[in-house]
Task: structure prediction
Amino acid sequence: MIKTMITPENTRVSLVVPASFVGKQVEIIAFTVEESVDESVEQNYILTHYASQKYLEKDWLTDEEDEAWQNL
Result:
């Protein structure tokens, strides 16, 4: 993964990518810094993930679930 910030001088932007990217699909996402996610909001998503994990493990950590996923 490569992350960089630029300040375009016009409506066209040119990228130089590593050789390992050649021939592969590369996803480019562009937004202004003002549009980026507030760090405190991002932290809340992480905390929600951990809270959900504790609740959902009741369903996930069962012998029945283990059996259902064993061939994957």
Notes: Residues 37-72 form one domain. The helical segments are 39-60, 63-69.
